[in-house]
Amino acid sequence: MTVVVEGLSVFAGDRPLVREVSLEVGAGERVGLIGESGSGKSLTAASIMGLLPDGLRATGSVRLRGRELLGASERVLSRLRGAEVSMVFQEPMTALNPLMRVGRQVAESMKLHQGISRRAAWARAGELLESVDLPGVARAYPHQLSGGQRQRVLLAIALANDPALLVCDEPTTALDVTVQAQVLDLILTGVARREAALLFITHDLAVVARICGRVLVMREGRIVESGVTRDVLTSPRHEYTRALLAASDLEDA
Amino acid sequence: MNDTGGASVPVIRLHEVHRRYSRVHALRGVSFEVAAGRRFGIVGGSGSGKSTVVRLLAALDRPTSGEIFFQGRRIDRLPERRLGFLRARLQVVFQDPLGSLDPRMRVRDIICEPLGRRNPDRVAELLAAVGLPGDSGERYPHEFSGGQRQRISIARALAPDPGVLVADEPVSALDVSVRKQILDLLAALADRLDLTLVFVSHDLAVVRRICDTVAVMRRGEIVETGGVAEVYDDPRHPYTRELIAAAPNLRGELARLKGER
Q1: How far apart are CA A111 and CA A160, in angstroms?
Q2: How far does A248 lie from chain B, in Å, by closest CA?
Q3: CB contact under 8 A, A250 and B183
Q4: Domain limits, chain B
Q5: Looking at the domain assignment, is residue A19 inside a domain?
Q6: What is the Cα–Cα distance from B17 to B19, expressed in whole angstroms?
Q7: Which residues in B lie closer than 8 A to residue A245 (C-beta atoms)?
Q8: CA A64, CA A165: separation in Å to the nearest integer?
Q9: Which portions of chain B are predicted below pLDDT 50?
Q10: Whether A250 and B176 lie within 8 Å, measured CB to CB
Q11: Fewest C-beta in 10 Å: which of A47, A165, B95, B206?
């Protein structure tokens, strides 16, 4: 297993926000995490990334290729982040440096983690941008790009060091419908090519149905149902999963 | 429905409306009419100009050229002091219920804002109409969930008994679990109160659920307009086809999964 989470709980003071969450994602596997806002899905992702906000405390275990991440030093975590595990967020503008050309932002991550030369990193950045259908934009600044293009730059950065695990938190929610499909396809191609594990967080059941082999349903910090996507979405067992499905279907009378 | 007497006068009419900002040509000759009692959807991506249309309809902005009529009366050149009739008859519900509700005001005062005076009876009536508990008026916006806050915005919009409700992405910031409830509430209110609805969204499925007519916008232009079933089932413009093909479709995906069994 690429990542194994066992009994993960996240507390704000004494108040549990995530309760005893366990999940696994193997190489090449695509797992969806669904639930409404406040269900704990983003905090679960943040715990895996070692990016919990100040004041929150996690207990349990998060192991990436056998290495324990909970309680690891920031030095160790920052070496892993962007290399072995990387993430794509919902809001592509805030995650890019507005003052730096996008090609350099892709290159920086490789220089940092792979120790390759500036010239080699720049050349590789161009290839990576091309692989997300952005040929010739390396010299552009973020504000010169559309939302969908910026999200693809972030995907290029996330994939730059061939991570073992890619975590996506609502990566297409802020994008236009026509751009969403394209970005999803690029995410799928990117992880497939690297046989990376994918943990995909969304509120959109149609997207999960389309791309994830397994799915976990979270509510109030707990996983209330999990299994093969086909089983969970076509014959849900938990009342909450059924309610989510009913609420998501806008075609009924 | 309208006070000019002629049944054929549309509630809203835009004729060749352009809106240029310093560097952006946001609307490029937009024309449409909305008849009384219609549920008119405007769908398009970001930058399509749909939010500009909302601002112009509410006279929060003026067109660079073209004409905008409300119940037969031209509104695009009126000074603010003569827009009182429009503010009473056309109200807007915005996307983000928290951002548009003053956190320091009690809900009863928020709801009475468009009336300019307190009216406890009207507050009670409106709270009931949008399905909020009777004691909600005494509380503050932060004490409510996202869906409940959008109910408060709807109650406020309905306070002056407007006749026309413009909803700008009213469910886009809401969780899936409450989105359908708010859509169905808007539809029920439109029915019961004989409202004309202008509903703006990037989400095709949402527009299809609530509207009878739809206009598809792209880059400041309406590329296609017609009855909802007609446009969705037999789209003519390539962009409409692209939108429909790209939209995630839960029923379609579930049918595919079942087929794999």
Answers
A1: 10
A2: 6
A3: yes
A4: 12-260
A5: yes
A6: 7
A7: 250
A8: 8
A9: 1-5
A10: no
A11: B95
